[in-house]
Amino acid sequence: MRWGTGAESWHTRSVHSASERELERKMGDLALRLHELQSVVVAFSGGADSAFLAAMAHRELGVEGAHAVTAVSPSLAGSEEADCRSLATEWGLRWTPVETHEMERAAYRSNDAERCYHCKAELMDVVGPIASAAGATVVLGVNLDDLGDHRPGQRAAAEAGAAFPLVDAGFTKDDVRAASRQLGLRTWDKPAAACLASRVPYGTEVTVGILSRVERAESVLHALGFRQCRVRHYDNTARIEVDTADLAAVIERRADIVDAVRSVGYAYVTLDLEGFRSGNLNASLT
Q1: Which secondary-structure segment (H or E) carries 241?
Q2: Which of 66, 86, 176, 231 lies at a C-alpha separation of 20 to 30 Å from 264?
């Protein structure tokens, strides 16, 4: 993929609306922020946010200044790791997969409201030394919309010295998608894909077996054509969330879905009529 050069390039394009000018300004601010950091290690999960940040860091700082690192553990779906590898190859990123061991942390497995804190603490313990050895800063693809949810992992990352360039430049989730589309990144409309542990209600112990079952259940739903979906794990019950526009399709394919989800180990298959909501298990904390 061919990238432009230099932060100033964002300010030389002809734009035709206030929203386009605002997006161009934010892209310029992001480029400037990355140059301020000089060298970064991007926590690269392959989602729209981290992919955009990795692409911009590569564009602005090159392979010497931008290193994309993917944390590999049972909480990352295998398909996501594979997509990170593919994206790195397509975009020419300097990319390294590293193993993290959050499952060895009892505080993580116990799955209380601070689970994400322990996950990001593990990430920083593994990725932080990589950045330190290169004189770089760990950067995460957190955007402004993420700040309004319960995200203790952001606190853990910030405490360990990570930076959030998208927040610094004023990016919302919609901005990330619009800018990604402008750059021609295929991740611009990629469905949200949080870690697999986010499917497990607080208070239920996180195990490798549960994460594997959730991953396999979502995989069969993807194979049936449901691009944006979640399988929330409640012991022997799978609670399926899809976009509200797909609710009718789920009913139409009820038998296929029930058979597929039961095949991975669930006894009961239910549909959440409110549809997909990112982070909706946080509602139990209020």
Answers
A1: strand 237-242
A2: 86
Dist CA 101 CA 109 (whole Å): 11
Task: Give me the amino acid identity at 73.
Answer: S
Contact 232, 238 (CB under 8 A): yes
**The pTM is what?**
0.89
**What is d(CA 269, CA 195) in angstroms, rounded to the nearest whole number?**
21
- Mean per-residue pLDDT over the chain, rounded: 92
CA dihedral 156, 162, 168, 171 (to 10 degrees): -70
In the prediction, which pLDDT does 3 show?
47
The pair of structure tokens assigned to 255 is 């038998």
Q: How many CB atoms lie within 10 A of CB 275?
A: 17
Q: What is the pLDDT of residue 12?
A: 42
How far is the CA of 71 from the CAs of 32, 94, 99, 229, in angstroms? 27, 15, 6, 22
Q: Are β-strands 95-99 and 66-72 bridged in parallel, bridged antiparallel, or unpaired?
A: parallel
Residue from 200, 71, 90 nearest 141 by CA: 71
If pLDDT is split at 50, 70 and 90, which confidence band does 9 have? very low
Residue 180 confidence (pLDDT) above 60:
yes
Which of 41, 110, 112, 30 has its CA nearest to residue 71?
41
Lowest mean pLDDT among 139-153, 173-187, 235-249: 139-153
Amino acid identity of residue 88, one-letter, is A
The CA-to-CA distance between both ends of the chain, in Å, stands at 45
What DSSP element (H or E) covers 40?
strand 40-43
List Cβ neighbours of 255 (8 Å cut-off, separation of 6 or more). none
Q: DSSP state, 36? A: H
